[in-house]
Amino acid sequence: AQSVTQLDSHVSVSEGTPVLLRCNYSSSYSPSLFWYVQHPNKGLQLLLKYTSAATLVKGINGFEAEFKKSETSFHLTKPSAHMSDAAEYFCVVSERRSNYQLIWGAGTKLIIKP
Amino acid sequence: NAGVTQTPKFRILKIGQSMTLQCTQDMNHNYMYWYRQDPGMGLKLIYYSVGAGITDKGEVPNGYNVSRSTTEDFPLRLELAAPSQTSVYFCASSHDTLNNSPLHFGNGTRLTVT
User: Which residues of A touch B (CB under 8 A)?
Assistant: First the structure.
């Protein structure tokens, strides 16, 4: 069965410092992996996705994530945080045989300190 | 181009009342979804549709019904509201299956049942 664990419910960083949001997954088959972002009182937006091409995936707003099969991880990073990055981030997994079902992590709230 | 539009934004229901959450999209997407988001948890799929006239249950369908008479509209019906249905509801659509196409979300409906 698929599952997703986001290791931190909250992450607080200072503006201009690196961001690391951690995600581990379990999947019986080759997974597709996604990161979505939710700004306050808004819907969710796709940041980036991994679907078996390059293991380092670049997304919007300077974010990237690396798929590490041996560690079953898909951590999200950004070299330098900006105040506008404050939001909730969701790691999501989908198995290739399941076209309609996504398994969502519980979310990590990113707090940016000025 | 409005994308995915949900109405209402907020609603308070008494136990046993019924209501319909409206969702419409103008992107001509075949695939539409209803999710609920509870505090500290990831999104859970309630129902989905792969095209007009076709709907199917997701992970948590009990207490809800849907219909898909047109490509644009995918309303969610609560027949006998219960406190357990207090949640934020998101409608989403996609052009293709979830492994090939990102989800486009509405801004959500915050429902309280008391």
Answer: 4, 9, 32, 34, 36, 41-46, 49, 51, 90, 92, 94, 96, 99-107
